[in-house]
Amino acid sequence: MYELLLAGGWIMAPILLSSILAMAIVIERLTVLRDGKVIPEGLVNKIWHLHAKGEITQKNIAAIRQSSHLGRVLATALANRSHEREAIKQAVEEEGRQVVHELERYFSALGTIAAITPLLGLLGTVVGMIKVFSAITTAGVGDPTVLAGGISEALITTAAGLCVAIPALIFHRHLNAKVDRYALQMEEQAVKLVDVLKGQREQ
Known about the structure:
Helix 2 packs antiparallel against helix 8 and helix 4 packs parallel to helix 9 (about 145-195). The protein has helices spanning about 1-5, 10-30, 35-40, 45-55, 60-65, 70-80, 85-105, 105-140, 145-195. The protein is built from 9 helices and no strands. The protein has one domain (about 1-195). The termini are far apart. The mean pLDDT is about 85.
């Protein structure tokens, strides 16, 4: 592996750095974006029972807000329950946008890595071919070993760039889809809670 890194030339350094950064982002996001942490099961039922018993206190709202990302959205609805339905809905939407923004943290960086690493590989290819033609100009084409260094550098950097870009793109799409699903579920749960608070839905 070390020999391949050396053979790929200096372009391998930013490609390797990009791979490490992409791996760190993916691991961190997969740790955060878990169903139990974002949308814990039974939270809405718990809130409905508290509401039915008249036990929606500031302490309980604070505990719900700290429990999860969904809890933040639902706690906003509870904190504004004395207002009109449209005012509650607007407050929930604003909080929901902030929550989704947090869930999408580092997505831009991961998408950038997926986009630039093939270009870095292409740059390595160009640099390697320049070395090949420089070697041909200097020594001719009689000795294949003279050309081998440039050709191997071109191929290695191209392969390395694709090996980083493809998984990064796959995880970027996967994580985006996951956040979209969470956003839809949080919106559905929040609408149900608002309807319950305003007496437009049975618990």
